[in-house]
Design brief:
CATH class of the largest domain: Alpha Beta
Strand order of the largest sheet: 3-2-4-1-5-6-7
CATH topology of the largest domain: Rossmann fold
Number of domains: 2
CATH architecture of the largest domain: 3-Layer(aba) Sandwich
Shape: globular
Strand content: 25-35%
Structural class: alpha/beta
Helix content: 25-40%
Order of helices and strands: EHEHEHEHHEHEHEHHEEHEEEEEH
């Protein structure tokens, strides 16, 4: 990877990598973190990596961050690494207080953590936290792809359990997580938000000359092996959609997608709800109960379905989508 001559940068600001499998709730957590830091007048940069069209998720964060950068149709840990480093360098030169990077759902964070460490004196992004979002509904139950979840967890500094309903997290799941990463900090929603706000506040005070607080995080190397390669068996495709359709018809199509489509997002107008467009999702075989209203430029981000999974056949899926 060749970035040319990198200038030495005097300022240092933290970076928070948000990882987790497809549909775990990474963007939801990111949005909550951005709202919390903004309430403290803390400036944030965001890099969002997605297999297909990062602009769909990124533009739903519009107004919550100082700078928003998409990393689309590539994987940040492999062919997209150069671009990720360029965007990270751009952030390190900005006057923001913290950088958030949301990786795509099957990205391997190890090469990113190691590369950031190697280029520490140039990128000046420190400390480096990795918050792994663990979906309690599906963690460890993804057959061959469970290795990817373990891969993401092994280098995490923090774990946040998502989709918890009606009580505490199963102690057996916590034990499983601890076995994979004995040193990880398990944090709840309020706790992770508070810690990240404190981290960004320390950075802000340091940049203003108000203190010399230090926060450290050690990350060890690991053997990636077949786990890393399996992360790239996933493919993504985009299917262009009409202006609008009945909500029930869109939900029916999402429900009928084959099991091999483990994540689907549909951006489309709804006949019953004119004037806006809406985002519907399916994670594994579960279609979201609610639709999210989005105000996106239809020229920059046209109506489309984004599908992710192993061995997707776009031609066959297009035949099924008749509205």
């Amino acid at each position: 990877m060749r970035l040319g001559e990198l200038p030495y940068l005097a300022s240092v600001r933290p970076v928070v990598l948000i990882t987790g499998f497809l549909g775990a709730g990474k963007t939801t957590l990111l949005r909550e973190l951005l709202v919390a830091v903004a309430a403290e007048s803390i400036l944030a940069d965001v890099i969002l990596n997605d297999y297909a069209d990062a602009k769909v998720d990124l533009l739903t964060l519009d107004g919550f961050a100082r700078n928003l950068e998409p990393l689309t149709a590539t994987c940040a840990c492999c062919e997209g690494m150069d671009f990720l480093l360029e965007l990270s360098l751009k952030s390190s030169q900005s006057d923001s207080d913290i950088l958030f990077i949301e990786l795509n759902g099957t990205a391997d964070p190890v090469p990113i953590v190691e590369t950031f460490t190697i280029l520490d004196e140039k990128l000046r992004l420190h400390p480096r936290w990795q918050v792994c979002v663990v979906d309690v509904r599906h963690f460890g139950k993804r057959a061959a792809y469970s290795d990817i979840e373990e891969l993401q967890l092994q280098t995490a500094s923090h774990v946040y359990f998502s989709h918890v309903s009606g009580g505490d997290v199963d102690p057996l799941l916590i034990e499983y997580v601890r076995k994979i990463n004995p040193t990880v900090s398990i944090v709840g929603r309020e706790e992770v938000i508070e810690q990240v706000v404190d981290l960004a506040g320390i950075s802000k005070r340091r940049l203003l000359g108000g203190g010399s607080d230090t926060v450290g995080l050690g990350v060890s190397r690991m053997d990636m092996g077949n786990q890393h390669m399996r992360a790239h068996e996933f493919t993504a495709c985009k299917i262009m959609l009409p202006d609008s359709a009945p909500e029930a018809r869109v939900r029916e199509w999402l429900a009928k997608l084959p099991e091999g489509v483990i994540r689907a997002k549909v951006l489309i107008g709804i006949d019953e709800k004119p004037q806006y467009r809406y985002l519907l999702e399916r994670v594994n075989m579960e279609v979201s109960k609610y639709i999210q209203k989005v105000t996106l430029d239809s020229v920059r981000v046209p109506n489309s379905a984004i599908l992710i999974g192993p061995d997707i056949n776009p031609g066959e899926l297009e035949k099924v989508f008749v509205l």
